[in-house]
Amino acid sequence: MKAVNTIGMGGHDVLPLVEGGKGVSATNGMSSGAWAAAGGIGTVSAVNADSYDEDGNIIPQIYHGRTRDDRHEELVKYGIDGGVEQVKQARELAGPDAVINVNVLWEMGGAQRILEGIFESEAGALVDGVTCGAGMPYKLAEISATHGKYYYPIISSGRAFRALWKRSYSKHPEWLGAVVYEDPWLAGGHNGLSNAEDPKVPQDPYPRVKEVRDVMRAGGISDDVPIIMAGGVWYLREWEDWIGNPELGTIAFQFGSRPLLTKESPIPEIWKERLPLLKEGDILLHPFSPTGFYSSAVKTPFLMEMQHRSERQIAFATVQCDHRTHKLDVGFKGNKTFWVTKDDLIHARGWVAQGYTDAMKTPDDTLVFETEEMAKILRKDQADCMGCLSQCKFSSWAEHNEKHSTGRLADPRSFCIQKTLQDIAHGGDPDDNLMFAGHSAHHFSTDPFYSNGFVPTVKQLVDRILTGD
């Protein structure tokens, strides 16, 4: 294994090891402070981060507003307060010379306001940079430059970075800390698959990263500005040919899944206990997220229910036509008239006989069949929306649209992502929730480092990674 030396990144010399910023309270001040203290870049998640009361207890993010607009304002305040708390904690643990970034998702509700709120707070001086993906964050460079912070855009192709560079980032090149290439088929969480890419046909990341470097070189960006490989990174020895490779320029590596199982990781014990049980093939790249992006998560019963719900689906017409000649007579009450095919009528009657008695309309002129109990839960979750995304297909919320609506019917084939991520992060059963993980997470069950239930500290994990294992 080649020696892993420090590199220049974001104005500091650091190990080329970056902590992935993981969603709702799965990466906090404790974990990121420890990672930065070990010599890499620590990443505080500023996505609905936790804040604390005077006794140090987590403040539950409960919403009291009567309207979505009111609840959205509460969400933004929670986001800023939590982000400030976690940054301060990270800096205290890491010390003054370590590198602490914050992570935001551009498509999260209030992303720009929360990021600027943290930068403008007493914690702003403690932050070195910002990592940002989930969308096309054209304003990221401008915001970062205004506040004197390095920016680390997350992209999944050279084409995406080219668009960002030409439109925006080329105006602020001096604050570009690194470019994060997040592989659509390997990374956990939300993935940047384009319409031209097949989720079932993974592509080799090497030529894709080489394309990113070619685009960077064409823009006059030095090879000293790192590309951070994110997704599928477990053993550095498997990536040894990337280190010091002149085709790729300076390379760093992001670790998302491995830091979940550490002493400092904030996720609850019930979640940590599930990680060593994962097997190869237990992670599913799926289309059910309310963001509209594909995402990768563990095949929990919660996620499988999403898949089964979409399978209990038929198309309908409101007027009789050549291929929809049978009147639907189950799944709804009142005088509604839906016309379906004969085969779909048989399917619908069968689902109702199994207890899936409620037909719920989707924005695509289809009906999905659910139990009465689950249909009530879905409708309540849609009504309780607090605008945690900039645009949500589950609730039809849209932060930047007139009347805060997408103009489309709320989609029952998805779920409230805020509800499930808050629950799993604070002690809820992983079986009942969305459990994000990268496609290399099955190594928890085979890597001898974790034998006999061993859970390392972050420092022990970083030292282990540096050996190549």
Percent in helix: 25-40%
CATH superfamily of the largest domain: Aldolase class I
CATH class of the largest domain reads: Alpha Beta
Give me the number of helical elements: 12
Outline of this structure?
The chain is of the alpha/beta class and 469 residues long. It folds into two domains: 7-272 and 444-466, Alpha-Beta Barrel (TIM Barrel); 301-432, no CATH class. Helices cover 29% and strands 16% of the residues.
What would your notes on this structure say?
The chain has 469 residues and is an alpha/beta fold. It folds into 2 domains: 7-272 and 444-466, TIM Barrel (Alpha-Beta Barrel); 301-432, no CATH class. Helices cover 29% and strands 16% of the residues. It contains 12 helices and 18 strands. It has helices spanning 29-37, 68-94, 111-119, 140-147, 158-167, 205-218, 269-274, 301-311, 342-353, 372-383, 417-425, 458-466, and strands at residues 7-9, 12-14, 17-19, 41-45, 99-105, 129-133, 150-155, 179-182, 189-191, 227-230, 251-255, 283-286, 294-298, 313-315, 326-327, 339-340, 358-361, 366-370. The strands form 5 sheets. Strands 3-11-10-8-7-6-5-4 form an 8-stranded parallel β-sheet. A 3-stranded antiparallel β-sheet has the order 9-13-12, with no helix packed on it. Strands 14-18-17 form a 3-stranded antiparallel β-sheet. α2 runs parallel beside α3 (111-119). It starts with 6 loop residues before the first strand and ends with a helix. The mean pLDDT is 94.
